[in-house]
């Protein structure tokens, strides 16, 4: 269509500017107190290591080249310019699959799965037409032009995007804030959204039940997150302009603000992994180059608060009305269980994985791909 325009990432001047700003940054040279460890935020040594790696051993142009191997586009919907990656499978029976990220994720969060999903190596594996948009306000998608823009508004725009691409019926995979976009599609747009998978689905257990061992472990994880790790969300849901302006042209600030979540919401074994460092630096670079750190914060200001998530998902109007699957990753911020998630919709697939967390597509791409194919193989029913 004429209003769908090809897009390629090409920002060489900004790379030079980023490197200059990083080299001109003065770190304090020590933690806030000598025995800080990780009690006051990410360890100082971690921050120093990522800063040094960003300057000396991070190749943005290889990241850019890898992304540009896949077709990317922009299009205008409801006066918003929406960026998306779209890689079609070669098979005629491929399933349209909409992948929806959250914060501090990005479209790139799915970079380790969009190839395997659209270009399976085994002829017997299900193939997908993969569509990965940036949420409004993230990575080359316009931020909302008005206050009060909710994730339910984003769901409406994404449904229009899929139909503009010729996909009248499709499957959704989502996590973090993307879960609430996916939940809206699977509760209100059931003529088009036919199947849903989520790796994030905060849900309440029934009252008065005895918890299983896993449910006790997940409750401990949730309580710790809400008690000790929610300061970033309070800032963004109350003063996004203030913290947004602080971070807008501050690469080290962005690195700390988004990088903290990448180590606190993932498998702890990731912390010293070179590929995980690369993922953090790539995400920080994307936020910096696309000038989206401030506008990305609107997801927190305009939507349901964390302590109301479980209440929101059991409201009748938010119940998932199409078949859906959930994979519970134990290191997630708010992992849930089968009987809790089952209260929020037509749950047909459930799996537990103990080797990854909040960033499932990056942490355990093969597992996520496997779960999507298993769910689709049993429950995709296009009419």
UniProtKB/TrEMBL annotation:
Epoxide hydrolase N-terminal domain residues: 4-110
SUPFAM superfamilies: alpha/beta-Hydrolases (SSF53474)
Alphabetically ordered keywords of this record: Hydrolase
InterPro entries per record: AB_hydrolase_fold, Epox_hydrolase-like, Epoxide_hydro_N, Epoxide_hydrolase
Catalytic center residues: 176, 300, 358
A Pfam short name: EHN
Top-rank lineage group of the source organism: Eukaryota
Keyword Hydrolase: yes
A GO biological-process term: epoxide metabolic process
Gene Ontology terms, MF aspect: epoxide hydrolase activity
Gene3D superfamilies: alpha/beta hydrolase
Keyword presence, Cell inner membrane: no
Family assignment from sequence similarity: Belongs to the peptidase S33 family.
Protein name: Epoxide hydrolase N-terminal domain-containing protein
Record organism: Aspergillus chevalieri (Eurotium chevalieri)
């Amino acid at each position: 269509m004429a209003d769908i325009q090809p897009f390629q990432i090409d920002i060489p001047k900004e790379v030079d500017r980023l490197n200059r700003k990083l080299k001109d940054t003065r770190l304090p040279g020590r933690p806030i107190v000598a025995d800080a460890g990780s009690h006051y935020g990410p360890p100082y040594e971690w921050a120093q290591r990522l800063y040094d790696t960003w300057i000396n051993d991070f190749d943005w142009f290889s990241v850019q080249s890898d992304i540009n191997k896949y077709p990317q586009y922009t299009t205008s919907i409801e006066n918003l310019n929406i960026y998306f990656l779209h890689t079609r499978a070669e098979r005629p029976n491929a399933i349209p699959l909409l992948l929806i990220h959250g914060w501090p994720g990005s479209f790139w969060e799915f970079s380790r799965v969009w190839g395997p999903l659209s270009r399976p190596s085994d002829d017997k594996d299900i193939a997908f037409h993969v569509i990965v948009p940036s949420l409004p306000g993230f990575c080359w998608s316009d931020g909302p032009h008005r206050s009060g823009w909710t994730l339910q508004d984003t769901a409406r725009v994404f449904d229009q995007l899929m139909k503009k691409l010729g996909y009248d019926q499709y499957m959704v995979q989502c996590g973090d804030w993307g879960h609430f976009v996916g939940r809206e599609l699977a509760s209100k747009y059931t003529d088009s959204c036919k199947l849903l998978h989520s790796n994030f689905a905060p849900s309440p257990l029934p009252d008065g039940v005895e918890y299983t061992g896993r449910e006790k472990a997940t409750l401990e994880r949730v309580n710790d997150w809400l008690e000790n790790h929610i300061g970033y969300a309070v800032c963004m849901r109350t003063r996004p302009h203030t913290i947004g302006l602080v971070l807008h042209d501050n690469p080290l600030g962005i690195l700390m603000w988004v990088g903290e979540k990448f180590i606190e919401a993932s498998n702890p074994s990731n912390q010293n992994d070179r590929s995980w460092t690369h993922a953090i630096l790539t995400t920080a670079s994307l936020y910096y180059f696309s000038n989206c750190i401030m506008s990305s914060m609107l997801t927190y200001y305009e939507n349901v608060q964390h302590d109301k998530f479980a209440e929101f998902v059991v409201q009748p109007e938010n119940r998932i009305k199409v078949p859906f699957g959930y994979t519970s990753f134990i290191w997630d911020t708010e992992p849930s269980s089968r009987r809790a998630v089952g209260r929020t919709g037509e749950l047909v697939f459930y799996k537990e994985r103990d080797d990854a967390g909040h960033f499932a597509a990056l942490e355990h791409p093969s597992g996520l791909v496997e779960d999507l194919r298993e769910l689709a193989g049993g429950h995709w029913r296009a009419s």
